[in-house]
C-alpha cells in the first residue's frame, strides 16, 4: 500500500508537469498563431524576407563624346558564364536544363574560353560533389564578348547560362588616353581612375536603382511576387572640346616620330587661342585605357609635368619689354656673351657664346639670342617689373583646366643670375598648358583665355544640355598693339633668313612661332651631348588671324649627328597644323607656285559606283569602295569637300562588303566603322595588319570588327653624341 501510494503520488506529479508543459507549449503556439510573432519578430515578415530576392539595378555610366558626337568611352556589355549543375532544375529529362555531361561540357567550352579543359572539368565536379546549384569559372568565364557568347550559344550546351555585366570600353584605344583617362570595376561598381573619367566621376556614374520580388527555391517569381522596382538614374553624357579628327592626326604623327626617334618624352597640344578650347592633346609614353598594365607614364605631362621652357619663354620677355614701352627693335647690341658683373656668371648665346656680332633686338629674337633676352630684363624692363609680368601671365598659378592632376610652375628668382636666366627660359619651370594659356594673349589681341576640355554635359534620356562651358577671358596682360607686334616678331622666326624656325613653314598658311631648346639636369649636373635637350616649338596660324595654336616638345630624341631637334617636332607640327586647318575649312592666306591644289569633290551620293570611282581615282585620290553595289550610299566626304592627292576616300555602296583594310591607318578604319555602323575594337597602334571580318564578307549594322594595328617598321642606328646644343 505504501508503495502504491508513492507510485500514485509520483504519477500525479508527472501528470501535473506534463499538463503544465502541454499547456505552456500549446499556449505558446496559440500566442504565435494569434500574434504571428516570435520574440517580437513577425513571422510573416521573416517569411517574406526569406522569399524575397533583392538586386541592384546598376545605372548606366554616361558616355564620353568628342565635340562632334564621336563616342570615346561607353559601357560595353560583356558576359559572365554560369553552369547550372543542380539536377532538380531540369523539368523534362529529354530537354536537360543542367549540366548532364561535365566531361563533354568542359571539352566544348575550353577552346572558346581559352581555358584548360582539366580546370573546367575540376570546377564542375567540385560543384557537383559540394551539392552546389551552379558554378563559375573564375577569370576564364568573365568579360566574354558578344561574339564569344553567341558561339557558345550555338553549341546548345545544357545548363549553360549567361549574366550580362558592363565594362568600360574605349573604342579608339590609345587615343587621347591621358585626357579621357579610364574607369575600372571594383566590387561591381565602375569608378573613374584618371582623366575625365575621374574628374567627372560623380556625374558619369548616376544613381543605382533596385528591384525586389518574392521567388521560389529556383529563383522563379511567385504568381504574386510583391515586386518593387526603383529605376536607376543613368549618368550624364560628357562632351569634350577634343576633335576626333585633329586628335587622330596628332596621335598618328606622334606615334610615327616616337617609333623613329625613340625620345624620352613627347608632348603636344592643339588649341583654339580665341576660345581656349583644347582640340587635341597627347603625350608619349601613353597607354591603352582598355588594358592599363605596364604603364610607363601615368601623368598627363601637358598639364602635370613642369619643365624648363627654354627659349619659348622669350615670347613673354619681349612682350613685357614692348608693353613697358622700353623696346626698340632697331636698336643694336653686341651678341655672344653678356656679364652684369664680375661676380655673376656670363650669359652666352646658344652657339657657344660666339654670337653674330652686332645685331638688332628684332634680329636677336629671330636668332633666339639669350644675350638679347638678358639685356632686356636687366637693362630695359627691370627685374622687379619683369616679375610683375611673370605673375600677370599667371605663371605663378595653375591654369584651372578641367582635368585632374594639374601642377603649377615654379620660379627661382633669388639672385641676379636667376633673374636674367628666367628671361630665356632657365631658372624656372612651367607646364606646356601654362605656356599655351599665356600665349593666347599674343594670339588673341592681348586677351588671355582659360583653357578647357569639357564642352558640356547632357541628359542621355532627354537630350537636354545640363551645363555648357564658354570662353572665359581671365585677364589682359598685354595690349592689342603689343600682341600684333609680337606676332610680327614670331613670323620672322619662321620666315626670315636668320630665323631658327624655317622648318616650320606651311605651304599655304602663314606661321608665327618660337623655337625652344632647354637644358636637362640629372643629379644636379647638366647633360651634354647631341640631342640631350628638350626641344620645343609654339606656333600659331594663320599669323594675322590665328585659328589654331600648337605646342610640341620632344625630350632627348635619338637624332643623328647631322640632324637637329627640330626634325621630329617640325614633322608633327606641319602635318597636324596643315591638315587641321584644311579640315576646319580655314581659308589659306598665302599662295605659292608649287602649292598642291586640292581636289574638290563632285556629287557622290546616289551616283554610279564605277563613274565616281574612276573620276576620283583620276584626280589622284586613294579610293576605297566598300561592296559590290552599283550605287554609292555613303562616303567619308561629301560634295564640295576638298582633299589632297593621295588622301583616302571611302565609298560605301548599296551592297556593302568588307574591304581589305591592311595598311589602313586608325583614322581610316574609324571612318569605315562609322559609315558602316560596325562595332569596332581597335587593338594596338599604327596601321592595320589583321581584321576579324574577312575581305568580301557581307557586313551588317553592329557586326563586330576587331582590327590589330602595328607601327610601321623603322631602321634605327646608333647615333654619335656631340656637344652641339644649338637652337633648332
CATH superfamily of the largest domain: DD-peptidase/beta-lactamase superfamily
Oligomer: single chain
- Output the CATH topology of the largest domain: Beta-lactamase
What is the residue-averaged pLDDT?
Answer: 86
List the helices and strands and how they pair.
Blueprint: H1 2-35, E1 37-38, E2 41-42, H2 43-51, E3 52-57, E4 64-65, E5 71-84, H3 102-113, H4 117-129, E6 134-135, H5 146-154, E7 160-169, H6 177-180, E8 182-186, E9 189-194, H7 195-199, H8 201-205, E10 209-214, E11 228-230, E12 237-240, H9 244-261, E13 265-271, E14 278-284, H10 301-304, H11 314-324, E15 332-334, E16 337-338, E17 347-348, E18 358-360, H12 361-367, H13 370-381, H14 383-392, E19 410-411, H15 416-422, E20 428-429, H16 432-443, E21 448-449, E22 454-458, E23 465-468, E24 473-475, H17 480-495, E25 512-519, E26 521-522, E27 525-526, E28 533-541, E29 548-555, H18 566-583, E30 599-600, H19 609-618, E31 622-626, E32 632-635, E33 642-643, E34 648-653, H20 666-676, E35 679-684, E36 687-691, E37 704-710
Parallel strand pairs: 4-12, 31-34, 35-37
Antiparallel strand pairs: 1-2, 3-10, 4-5, 5-6, 5-7, 8-9, 10-11, 12-22, 13-14, 13-29, 15-18, 16-17, 19-20, 21-24, 22-23, 25-28, 26-27, 28-29, 30-33, 32-34, 36-37
Helix pairs in contact: 3-4, 9-18, 11-13, 11-17, 12-17, 13-15
Amino acid at each position: 500500500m505504501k508503495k502504491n501510494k508513492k507510485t500514485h503520488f509520483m504519477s500525479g506529479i508527472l501528470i501535473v508537469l506534463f499538463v503544465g508543459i502541454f499547456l505552456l507549449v500549446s499556449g505558446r503556439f496559440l500566442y504565435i498563431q494569434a500574434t504571428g510573432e516570435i520574440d517580437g519578430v513577425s513571422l510573416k515578415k521573416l517569411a517574406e524576407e526569406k522569399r524575397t530576392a533583392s538586386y541592384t539595378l546598376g545605372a548606366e555610366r554616361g558616355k564620353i563624346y568628342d565635340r562632334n558626337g564621336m563616342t570615346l568611352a561607353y559601357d560595353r556589355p560583356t558576359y559572365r558564364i554560369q553552369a547550372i549543375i543542380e539536377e532538380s532544375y531540369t523539368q523534362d529529362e529529354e530537354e536537360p536544363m543542367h549540366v548532364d555531361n561535365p566531361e563533354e561540357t568542359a571539352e566544348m567550352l575550353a577552346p572558346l574560353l581559352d581555358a584548360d579543359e582539366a580546370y573546367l572539368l575540376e570546377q564542375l565536379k567540385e560543384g557537383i560533389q559540394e551539392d552546389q546549384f551552379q558554378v563559375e569559372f573564375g577569370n576564364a568565364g568573365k568579360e566574354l564578348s558578344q561574339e564569344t557568347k553567341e558561339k557558345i550559344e550555338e553549341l546548345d550546351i545544357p545548363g549553360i547560362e549567361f549574366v550580362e555585366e558592363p565594362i568600360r570600353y574605349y573604342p579608339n584605344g590609345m587615343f587621347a588616353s591621358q585626357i579621357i583617362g579610364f574607369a575600372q570595376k571594383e566590387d561591381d561598381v565602375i569608378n573613374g581612375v584618371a582623366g575625365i573619367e575621374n574628374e567627372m566621376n560623380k556625374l558619369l556614374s548616376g544613381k543605382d536603382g533596385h528591384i525586389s520580388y518574392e521567388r521560389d527555391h529556383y529563383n522563379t517569381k511567385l504568381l504574386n511576387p510583391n515586386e518593387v522596382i526603383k529605376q536607376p538614374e543613368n549618368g550624364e553624357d560628357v562632351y569634350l572640346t577634343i576633335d576626333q579628327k585633329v586628335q587622330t592626326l596628332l596621335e598618328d604623327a606622334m606615334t610615327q616620330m616616337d617609333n623613329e626617334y625613340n625620345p624620352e618624352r613627347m608632348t603636344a597640344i592643339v588649341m583654339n587661342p580665341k576660345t581656349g578650347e583644347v582640340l587635341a592633346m597627347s603625350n608619349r609614353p601613353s597607354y591603352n585605357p582598355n588594358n592599363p598594365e605596364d604603364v610607363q607614364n601615368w601623368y598627363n605631362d601637358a598639364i602635370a609635368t613642369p619643365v624648363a621652357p627654354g627659349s619659348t619663354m622669350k615670347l613673354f620677355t619681349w612682350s613685357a619689354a614692348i608693353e613697358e614701352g622700353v623696346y626698340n627693335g632697331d636698336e643694336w647690341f653686341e651678341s655672344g656673351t653678356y656679364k652684369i658683373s664680375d661676380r655673376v656668371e656670363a650669359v652666352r648665346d646658344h652657339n657657344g657664346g660666339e654670337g653674330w656680332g652686332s645685331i638688332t633686338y628684332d634680329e636677336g629674337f629671330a636668332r633666339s639670342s639669350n644675350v638679347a633676352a638678358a639685356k632686356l630684363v636687366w637693362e630695359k624692363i627691370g627685374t622687379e617689373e619683369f616679375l610683375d609680368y611673370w605673375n600677370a601671365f599667371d605663371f605663378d598659378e595653375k591654369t584651372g583646366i578641367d582635368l585632374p592632376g594639374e601642377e603649377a610652375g615654379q620660379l627661382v628668382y633669388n639672385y641676379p643670375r636667376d633673374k636674367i636666366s628666367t628671361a630665356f627660359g632657365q631658372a624656372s619651370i612651367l607646364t606646356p598648358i601654362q605656356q599655351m594659356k599665356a600665349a593666347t594673349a599674343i594670339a588673341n589681341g592681348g586677351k588671355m583665355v582659360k583653357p578647357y576640355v569639357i564642352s558640356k554635359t547632357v541628359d542621355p534620356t532627354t537630350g537636354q544640355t545640363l551645363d555648357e562651358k564658354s570662353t572665359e577671358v581671365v585677364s589682359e596682360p598685354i595690349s592689342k598693339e603689343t600682341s600684333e607686334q609680337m606676332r610680327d616678331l614670331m613670323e620672322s622666326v619662321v620666315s626670315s633668313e636668320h630665323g631658327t624656325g624655317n622648318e616650320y613653314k606651311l605651304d599655304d598658311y602663314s606661321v608665327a612661332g618660337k623655337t625652344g631648346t632647354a637644358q636637362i639636369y640629372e643629379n644636379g649636373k647638366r647633360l651634354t651631348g647631341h640631342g640631350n635637350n628638350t626641344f620645343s616649338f609654339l606656333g600659331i596660324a594663320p599669323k594675322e588671324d590665328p585659328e589654331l595654336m600648337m605646342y610640341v616638345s620632344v625630350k632627348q630624341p635619338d637624332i643623328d649627328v647631322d640632324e637637329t631637334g627640330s626634325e621630329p617636332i617640325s614633322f608633327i607640327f606641319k602635318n597636324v597644323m596643315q591638315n587641321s586647318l584644311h579640315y576646319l575649312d580655314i581659308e589659306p592666306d598665302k599662295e605659292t607656285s608649287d602649292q598642291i591644289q586640292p581636289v574638290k569633290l563632285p556629287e557622290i551620293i546616289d551616283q554610279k559606283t564605277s563613274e565616281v570611282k574612276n573620276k576620283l581615282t583620276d584626280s589622284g585620290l586613294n579610293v576605297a569602295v566598300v561592296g559590290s553595289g552599283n550605287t554609292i550610299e555613303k562616303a567619308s566626304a561629301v560634295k564640295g569637300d576638298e582633299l589632297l592627292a593621295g588622301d583616302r576616300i571611302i565609298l560605301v555602296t548599296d551592297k556593302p562588303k568588307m574591304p581589305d583594310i591592311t595598311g589602313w591607318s586608325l583614322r581610316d578604319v574609324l571612318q569605315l566603322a562609322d559609315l558602316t555602323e560596325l562595332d569596332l575594337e581597335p587593338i594596338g597602334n599604327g596601321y592595320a595588319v589583321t581584321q576579324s571580318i574577312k575581305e568580301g564578307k557581307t557586313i551588317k549594322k553592329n557586326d563586330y570588327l576587331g582590327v590589330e594595328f602595328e607601327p610601321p617598321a623603322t631602321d634605327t642606328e646608333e647615333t654619335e653624341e656631340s656637344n652641339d646644343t644649338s637652337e633648332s
